[in-house]
Amino acid sequence: MNLVYAAMLPAMLLRMFHNQIWISLSRHQTARRKHIIVDRGLEFDQVDRERSWDDQAILATLFFYLAYAAIPSVRLMPMWETKGAIIMALLHVGPIEFIYYWFHRALHHHFLYSRYHSHHHASIVTEPITAVVHPFAETLAYFLLFSIPMLIPICMGYGSVLGVVLYLAYNDFINNMGHCNFEMLPKWIFQRFPPLKYLMYTPSYHSLHHTQFGTNYSLAMPIYDYIFNTMDKSTDELYERTLIGTEETPDVVHLTHMTTLQSIYHLRVGIASVASRPSDNHVWYMWMIWPMAWLSMVLAWVYGSSAFVVESLKLKKIKMQTWVIPRYNFQYGLIREREPINRLIEQAISEADERGVKVLSLGLLNQEKQLNGSGELFTQKYPKLRVRLVDGSGLATAVVLKSIPLDTKRVFLCGGSSKVAHATTTALCERAVQVIVNQKKEYDMLKLRLAESSTTYLRFSTDEIPRVWIGDIIDGKQQMGAPRGATFIPTSQFPLKKIRKDCTYLSNPAMKIPQAMQNVHTCENWLPRRVMSAWRIAGMVHALEGWGIHECGDDMMDIEKVWSAAIKHGFTPL
């Protein structure tokens, strides 16, 4: 097979991988907020607008295949040619940067801006993928412009495969860096070689172009902005301020973990378009990238020694972050992994305490009773802990209770061993709603928790099956035993697998978040957009209300009190 032909597809995949590294790096750094440039939130509409970022790489590859078929000298290119690389570099530094500057200024004329370039500038808070999101005609113009340094050496007989690949990688690098929204270039580079400020731009330099619009037009060499007096006067000040930076201390930390093997892609630092949709919204190309998911799992298991930041949110004056324990669902089920996982959780709690975090909510299996007693292990070990640990059971119980129809007289408890399931059962019995249990051991345990006046509403039966079911795990076989038209209400953080089409399945306890919450552009696991689990929301409410107590172990917030507080702060039922 011809070398040039064989290199085209790998080169395209390499470009996509390179861009994805920038996306992940940028999102991790902006979540930390230490060197963030534009401190505004991203929204779902921007993620949706930029989901086609890889189209330009595919289009460029198709053009390369056409060039391969149409230009004989393309098929004869060697792996490397030094003369061709030098010509390519000189063409880019000379005419290409100059032409780009004036073409970019022309795009800001109201006629072209309103028809084309405004699509790109709709993203004031830029991400690496913002760099290549343009209308088709503009994308085509850029491709033609940047084809010049590649085609001229080829026509002169000095083209090479590696030269073209490196030139594309260079363009991707400067584009991604300019739109990453965090400052990364150290000051000593410009101090040791002062003329470099005219030859290489910084992320803060191009960020000003997206916020001020009428300045900093150059591609990668600011020299033309200096020559034609379009350099933003605040460029140097913004660069120095963002470079120093300070890592933000959040008020609330939600400590979660990865779930399935492919959940790494669903994190905010994963694939942007995938993370913006519920995780049960399967994407067709997932099967193609499962080896990377497997590799990520192995690396996380071997080298994942601490929680990492993936998200930063803001509601009113409360700043929130999401930290992820680098472990997966299946690892929480391994007895030998319990102690290492608890060490990771303990380490995250200690770090949050040292940094002055007010509330840390334990998400998913990080609050598993068999693992750490719903967090009680840590409050007992550290009685002077300043950060408040919240398992969210009070709000989760409130959401389950509000999900049960008001006219319900009987409820079936199926597989309910969790703190929320027990609290829901207790509350229902106190409200004179009969709860039917078909497991004798579970019935005896629940009866001991009830006040004597409420025990009459707890009933053990193997043949009475009401239409409203609650429980942590209701498997397919159990669902088939439910009557037609039954309603399944999960009490755990994990959704039920839907088996029956003639029954109603409710979401696991969750609420809609207020419109005032900023920087929300990912979905929490399997939940819809702008919906969060009750366990996560409970930590936010805890901080907003300034409650100074833990909610973990057997302790639970007053159900009505925490529900009223959540509603007061703008959270609404699904």
Folded structure, characterized:
α22 links the parallel β7 (434-437) and β8 (458-460). The chain has helices at 3-32, 44-49, 55-70, 72-75, 82-107, 110-121, 136-155, 161-178, 187-192, 196-199, 203-212, 223-227, 235-244, 272-275, 290-303, 329-332, 338-355, 369-372, 376-381, 393-403, 419-430, 440-449, 476-480, 534-545, 559-568, and strands spanning 252-257, 308-315, 318-325, 359-362, 388-390, 410-413, 434-437, 458-460, 468-471, 487-490, 504-505, 510-512, 531-533, 572-573. It is built from 25 helices and 14 strands. Strands 8-7-6-9-10-11 form a 6-stranded parallel beta sheet, with helices on one face. The longest helix has 30 residues, at 3-32. With 574 residues, the chain is an alpha/beta fold. Keywords: Endoplasmic reticulum, Lyase, Membrane, NADP, Transmembrane, Transmembrane helix. InterPro entries: CER1-like_C, Fatty_acid_hydroxylase, Sterol_Desaturase_Related. Its EC number is 4.1.99.5. Residues 91-230 form the Fatty acid hydroxylase domain. Homodimer.
Structural class: alpha/beta
Query: What coarse outline follows from CA principal-axis ratios?
Result: elongated
Q: Note the gap between the termini.
A: 58 Å
The count of DSSP E runs of length 2 or more, i.e. the number of strands, is 14
Rg over alpha carbons: 28 Å
Which segments are poorly predicted (pLDDT under 50) over 5 or more consecutive residues? none
Mean pLDDT: 95
Q: Helix segment count?
A: 25
Kindly report the oligomeric state of this protein: single chain
Strand content range: 5-15%
Mind summarizing the main beta sheet? 6 strands, parallel
Helix content: 40-55%
